[in-house]
């Protein structure tokens, strides 16, 4: 298969597997909000967000740098052994740090009871860190099918364990243990597919640090753009209000985050392989189409924004109706973060990891200043608006950078079509009075209309339609795709 076919095959498989995250996540959130209530769901959201920040930090420091170096290496084993040991050390140290800081963090947030839940949730770091190492090695080697199987196993296990443990009466503790158990199962599956050895001593390659440090800092900054939840709580919001914001943030970021997880590492791996072969025009096509895909999703965000109140009630019940206006704003922040993540993957594949930091660094002080101004005046809505504005600014700056320095034509026509279709579907959904399960039918009809609109407006070219027909034909004839051979592939 060509790099384009291999990327589409892999992204489709990984996305279908990772789509279990929003699917099972929505089921889990609906179950937990009804069983835990707003206050304890707020505790879970706060604890999970703190742990996820550290897990993101570990992934940010190692994952993309590992994918890049493994893709460039003739033999992945020396890098794999070193990175595995580093992952395990970092995970252990992070867990110990959380045990020490659990109580101060809880007091800072004004919720002393949160300390025990933070300490318990930190056990997840023991399993997440080595699992992340294995997954990065698999992606770096172009084994996208195995990556999809690992994700599917994790999200199914997470749903089953949480429903089982909470249903047995373990309440919030059961929800946390379900997350930890899912990480352990993910590690076991990953270990089945790839088994890096344990080295006698650890030597961090200089190239790893050259990539890891700026990528780590840039990703942490992008993640920190969602700090509205914590600033909102620190500035006087109740645990229930934090629960509303957390629920809205989860819904708004869950699908864009899933796409980012599915596409970004695979895009990095594929573009890296194409550039290694010296095929710059093909790399530019892959980059432009990745950006075009995200921009084309703008009308889908408009649909979710228009139906946000009904979505909040449908997923979480009437007690979470206050999350609706926040979803309407944060859904655009989620889409902007998706584009920013893809642009970071592009910069890394082109050997410019430090550029990710240059683009992200100015955004954090802008976000903090915006929150300090907006939250006292507008509350949670102000925090959501600042998050959406700053993430959009970051995505725009990244797109301009890619155009200027890599000579990639931005998909302006796609952007204009997306704006036109958004202007049509938003009022249509907003003023269509439906409730309950009918909201799902409304959203499905609106999505079909958007797809039809793209076809009528000429967004999909004949060659692209033929390309996807070839992808489907190959999938049916070959089954699950094997790793493509870079020596034989053509862009």
Measured between the Cα atoms of the first and last residue, the distance is 9 Å
> With helices defined by DSSP (H or I, 4 residues minimum), what is the helix count?
18
Task: Outline the biggest β-sheet.
Answer: none
Classify the beta-strand content into a percent band: under 5%
Average pLDDT for all residues? 84
What is the helix content?
over 70%
Uncertain spans, ≥5 residues at pLDDT below 50?
A: 479-491
Number of beta strands: 0
Basic shape: globular
Which class do the helix and strand fractions yield? mainly alpha
Description:
The protein has helices spanning 3-18, 20-72, 77-108, 114-121, 124-140, 144-193, 206-224, 228-234, 239-276, 280-295, 298-306, 308-316, 324-349, 353-360, 363-406, 412-430, 438-456, 462-478. It has 491 residues and is mainly alpha-helical. Helix 11 (298-306) runs antiparallel to helix 13 (324-349). The model is unreliable at 479-491 (pLDDT under 50).
């Amino acid at each position: 298969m060509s790099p384009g076919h291999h990327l589409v095959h892999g992204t489709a498989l990984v996305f279908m597997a990772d789509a279990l995250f929003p699917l099972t996540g929505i089921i889990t959130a609906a179950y937990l909000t009804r069983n835990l209530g707003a206050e304890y769901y707020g505790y879970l959201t706060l604890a999970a967000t703190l742990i996820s920040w550290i897990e993101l930090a570990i992934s940010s420091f190692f994952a993309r740098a590992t994918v890049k170096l493994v893709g460039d290496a003739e033999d992945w084993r020396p890098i794999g052994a070193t990175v595995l040991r580093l992952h395990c050390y970092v995970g252990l140290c992070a867990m110990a740090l959380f045990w020490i800081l659990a109580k101060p963090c809880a007091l800072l947030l004004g919720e002393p009871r949160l300390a025990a839940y933070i300490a318990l949730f930190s056990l997840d770091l023991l399993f997440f860190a080595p699992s992340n190492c294995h997954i990065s090695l698999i992606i770096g080697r172009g084994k996208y099918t195995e990556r999809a199987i690992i994700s599917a196993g994790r999200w199914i296990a997470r749903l089953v364990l949480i429903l089982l443990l909470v249903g047995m009466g373990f309440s919030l503790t059961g929800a946390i243990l379900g997350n930890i158990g899912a990480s352990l199962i993910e590690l076991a599956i990953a270990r089945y597919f790839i088994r890096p050895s344990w080295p006698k001593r650890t030597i961090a390659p200089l190239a790893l640090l050259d990539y890891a440090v700026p990528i780590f800092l840039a990703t942490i900054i992008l993640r920190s753009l969602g700090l509205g939840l914590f600033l909102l709580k620190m500035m006087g919001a109740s645990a229930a209000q934090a629960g509303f914001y957390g629920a809205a943030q989860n819904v708004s970021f869950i699908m864009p985050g899933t796409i980012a997880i599915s596409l970004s590492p695979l895009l990095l791996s594929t573009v890296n392989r194409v550039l290694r072969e010296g095929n710059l025009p093909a790399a530019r096509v892959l980059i432009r189409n990745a950006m075009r895909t995200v921009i084309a999703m703008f009308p889908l965000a408009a649909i979710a924004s228009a139906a946000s109140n009904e979505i909040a009630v449908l997923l979480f019940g009437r007690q979470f109706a206050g999350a609706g206006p926040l979803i309407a704003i944060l859904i655009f922040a989620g889409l902007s973060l998706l584009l920013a993540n893809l642009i970071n993957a592009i910069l890394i594949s082109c050997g410019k990891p430090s550029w990710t930091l240059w683009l992200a660094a100015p955004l954090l002080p802008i976000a903090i200043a915006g929150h300090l101004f907006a939250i006292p005046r507008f509350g949670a809505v102000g925090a959501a608006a600042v998050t959406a504005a700053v993430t959009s600014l970051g995505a725009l700056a990244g797109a301009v950078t890619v155009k200027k320095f890599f000579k990639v034509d931005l998909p302006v026509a796609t952007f204009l079509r997306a704006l036109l279709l958004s202007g049509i579907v938003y009022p249509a959904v907003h003023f269509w009075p439906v409730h309950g399960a009918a909201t799902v039918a409304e959203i499905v009809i609106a999505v079909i209309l958007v797809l039809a609109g793209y076809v009528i407006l000429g967004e999909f070219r004949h060659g692209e339609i033929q390309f996807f027909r070839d992808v489907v034909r190959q999938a049916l004839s070959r089954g699950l795709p094997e790793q493509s051979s870079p020596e034989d592939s053509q862009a």
